[in-house]
Design goal:
about 325 residues; alpha/beta; Rossmann fold; Dihydrodipicolinate Reductase, domain 2; 2 domains; seven-stranded mixed sheet; 8 helices; about 30% helix; globular
């Protein structure tokens, strides 16, 4: 599918997830793959299907002949190198926040706004992982009955902060259970047996950067600049897969059965809502899955006019929230 594909940040959590997806999605049936990382990652061998690829250092000649480049190495690296890659002929699909709110850069979830991809000038942005998980169930409902207000609270796993954060959770859990001191190094607070407001900076408005991203990105993806939406983002002691409590207010009354029917055929969604068995979305079930799990679908009793619905979501933020969404954008480009 891709003639020459590059991954910048190949040794990170998202980069490795993309490498795992490449053979599964048949991205390189005919083509070349180049992997890049910081100096400490240079020389590492990463398995891609039945082959291994050596990680290289990023230089001025790294993008020569590259057709498509995935960037998953953070804001600073994207701002420095993405325009350079575009300048030598590559199309960049960026997983950082560097360009998401740039009016000249499309912000794309293929199941929602694939048409926006045609307006790119060399860079296409993939949204924040929490935005992807939130938007996937809301969009098909919004098309059927316009959503007037969104209230979301997130329960975000340690892996959202990278592989070192996952290891910190493991280490702290072992230390806590052994009676040893729990020392935070990656996070500002202990993550084991604890939860805290998302570690991104809190502004004068009281919202942290993660919350502001979810709000602004959702408005951009939906082309609804005045959409009423608010978010509270919390880090929880889960290794992988984010969860969200979502409260929606619709333009017209809507029932839980109508919501289930709409979501049961929506792309990227799996309804898990077995009241009798007590089976609802959980991070352990969402981990490694392409679909976002949706359940706890119920009428919001605080809205007696029937326009309110409550949902609970769990989605693998490294998979659909990041790597898979990025890969799907490339598939969309090449279709």
């Amino acid at each position: 599918m891709a003639r020459h594909l590059a991954i910048v940040g190949a040794t990170g959590a998202v980069g490795r997830e993309i490498c795992a997806l490449i053979p599964e999605r048949k991205l390189l049936q005919v083509g070349k793959l180049s992997l890049f990382a910081s100096r400490r990652g240079v020389g590492k061998q990463i398995a891609v299907g039945h082959s291994t690829v050596e990680v290289q250092e990023l230089t001025d000649s790294s993008f020569d002949g590259v057709d498509f480049a995935f960037f998953c190495a953070g804001n600073e690296r994207s701002r420095e190198w993405a325009p350079f890659a575009v300048g030598v002929g590559a199309v960049v699909i960026d997983n950082s926040a560097a360009f998401r709110l740039d009016p000249d850069v499309p912000l794309v979830i293929p199941e929602i706004n694939p048409g926006d991809i045609t307006d790119h000038n060399g860079i296409i942005a993939s949204p924040n992982c929490s935005t992807v998980i939130l938007n996937l169930p809301i969009w098909p409902l919004h098309r059927a009955n316009p959503v007037k207000r969104v209230v979301v609270s997130t329960y975000q796993a340690a892996s959202g902060a990278g592989t070192a954060a996952m290891e910190e959770l493991r280490t702290q859990a072992a230390d806590y259970l052994a009676g040893r001191d729990v020392v935070p190094r990656v996070f500002p607070h202990p993550i084991a047996f604890n939860l805290f407001s998302h570690e991104t900076p809190t502004g004068s408005d009281g919202y942290n950067a993660e919350e502001r991203q979810m709000i602004a990105e959702t408005r951009k993806i939906f082309h609804e600049p005045s959409l009423a939406i608010t978010a509270t983002c919390v880090r929880v002691p889960v290794l992988r897969a984010h969860s969200q409590s979502i409260n929606l207010t619709f333009e017209r009354p809507i029932t839980p059965d109508e919501v289930r029917e709409i979501l049961s055929s929506a792309p990227g969604i799996e309804v898990v809502d077995d009241v009798e068995a007590g089976r609802f979305p959980m991070p352990v079930d969402a981990t490694g899955r392409d679909n976002v799990l949706i359940g706890r679908i119920r009428q919001d009793v605080s809205q007696p006019d029937g326009r309110g619905i409550e949902l609970f979501a769990s989605g693998d933020h490294l998979r659909k929230g990041a790597a898979l969404n990025t890969v799907q954008i490339l598939e969309l480009l090449r279709s």
